[in-house]
Write a structure and sequence with these properties.
Strand order of the largest sheet: 7-6-5-8-9-10
Radius of gyration: 22 Å
Distance between the termini: 43 Å
Largest sheet: 6 strands, parallel
Helix content: 40-55%
Number of strands: 10
């Protein structure tokens, strides 16, 4: 309702409307019916087969998603897994709008990466929402064993969330206050990038769960780490983990304290391996500059519209 109210207040027509979830995309369909927008894009920023524990709410969620996939002009998916999961739920590609892969990007060109001499070679960083399934408990539980091998190791946590107090208490009970720094929420993303760029390793130990968004989407965290020059330690949850492994831009692990400790100690102490992975991480992230992603996507949309017009013209002949 707020989306509809905002657009109606503009008192103008728009060429393209991008709805960043199924509810906003559905609002776009209403606006198209009112002739206030010409084309509606359903930007699928997350897709979870079990979005709600309530069966009724979950069915409503998938009903709205199905309507938007079929009725919007284009669908932007963060991950190819989204289209695959929809097919499993009976939505065939030939009955949906064109589904384009539009992965999460970074401001790669804007970010100032530091030289090895400018970073804290023993700093581990976690950036993100402090909530379930993010693996923050695993990081803190593993830290004492990491410190035994790397005494000057330090963990920096950027972000806040419902688990913040519990994580601080967990840190205090383990006697890790000197090794863990909570920076809290930082609104300015440039400031976040500056913090990340001075660290050595970015961690993303997502916990496997059927209710986790990460399993079906393209998380921003690992790409932001790599764009700042950090090799990544990531669990085998999002699909990007396997790309990172192939590219040798980080170490991919199971959700295991032992594996996390081993991977972290390796990257903090093996300078030759670290240099190779850091170089690969930067190269990997360079493919995901936001401007390039949107230029490619809009070019694909234009091509799709041109093909539709051409087909319509042939049909009328």
């Amino acid at each position: 309702f707020l989306t509809l109210f905002y657009v109606l207040r503009q008192r103008r027509r728009f060429d393209v409307y991008v709805g960043a979830d199924c509810l906003n995309a559905f609002s776009g369909l209403i606006l198209r019916r009112l002739h206030l927008v010409k084309a509606v894009v359903f930007y699928t920023i997350d897709y979870v087969p079990n979005r709600f524990k309530s069966r009724i709410l979950n069915e409503i969620y998938h009903l709205v998603d199905r309507i938007c996939v079929r009725c919007c002009d284009f669908v932007w998916n963060l991950s190819s897994v989204m289209a695959e999961q929809r097919e499993r739920r009976g939505i065939r590609k030939d009955e949906s709008a064109p589904q384009l892969l539009v992965p999460i990007g970074t401001s790669f060109q804007r970010i100032r990466r530091r030289s090895l001499q400018e970073i804290n070679r023993k700093a581990i960083v976690f950036m993100g929402h402090l909530r379930e399934h993010q693996g923050t408990e695993l990081i803190i539980d593993a830290l004492p064993e990491i410190i035994r091998e790397v005494p000057d190791a330090k963990l920096i946590i950027v972000g806040k969330g419902p688990m913040e107090s519990a994580l601080k208490e967990r840190t205090k009970r383990a006697g890790l206050e000197k090794h863990v720094e909570f920076l809290g929420f930082m609104e300015n993303h440039v400031e976040i990038e500056n913090v990340l760029a001075t660290c050595a390793v970015g961690v993303a130990p997502y916990a496997p769960s059927p209710y986790s968004y990460t399993l079906y989407t393209d998380p921003a965290k690992p790409k932001t780490y790599m764009a700042c020059g950090l090799p990544v330690i990531i669990t085998k949850v999002p699909r990007i983990a396997y790309e990172i492994e192939t590219y040798k831009a980080g170490i991919v692990i199971s959700y295991s304290k032992e594996e996390f400790v081993k991977a972290t100690v390796t990257l903090l102490t093996d300078d030759e391996l670290y240099g190779e992975y850091r170089k690969n991480a930067i190269m990997f992230a360079s493919k995901y500059e936001w401007n390039d992603i949107f230029h490619r996507t809009l070019a694909s949309m234009k091509l799709g519209i041109a093909r539709e017009l051409e087909t319509d013209s042939i049909d009328k002949m």
